[in-house]
């Protein structure tokens, strides 16, 4: 088994690869997510930062981002259990990036029903996990003494409110106005 330093070196090479060619993200992300269980704090910090940068990237296609966000949710939730404030802050920032993406995935289906309810029932387990993540992050935000974690938590809360408040940015409403 590779040491943490060797794994970190390999992860940095993978990061360079996806920066040069974003089409490699779907291959690289699962490998990166496989390392989240490692206890080494430098690896966890790197992974949390990489995930945040991945979902903040404008080079990544929206559908690819959505698919990667769905597979990243469980490992992200596991990383949040880390007691390190740097890992936690980056995980919260990453969560603020993926929350609207996954919310849209759950609430928009290819076919809109007559009752104007667009909830995708096939994604109910994903919605449950997203709700658990939101609850966990709200609790952390409320209890944290770290300024960075509290600021990241405030950003997450703002993103949740903006995403879930009906209006122009609500995917349930904006998709109806296009038909």
Per-chain topology:
Layout: H1 4-20, H2 25-33, H3 41-56, H4 62-80, H5 85-107, H6 124-143, H7 147-164, H8 171-177
Helix pairs in contact: 1-3, 2-4, 3-4, 3-5, 4-5, 4-6, 5-6, 5-7, 6-7
Describe this structure in words.
- It is a single chain.
- With 179 residues, the chain is mainly alpha-helical.
- The chain has one domain (4-177): Leucine-rich Repeat Variant, CATH 1.25.10.
- It has eight helices and no strands.
- The termini are far apart.
Distance between the termini: 54 Å
Q: Tell me the overall shape.
A: globular
Structural class: mainly alpha
For the secondary structure, the number of strands is 0
Oligomeric state: single chain
Strand content: under 5%
- H/E series, N to C? HHHHHHHH
**Contiguous uncertain segments of 5+ residues:** 111-118
In round numbers, the mean pLDDT is 85
Overview in brief:
This protein is mainly alpha-helical.
Notable features of this structure?
Leucine-rich Repeat Variant, 72% helix, mainly alpha, 179 residues, 8 helices
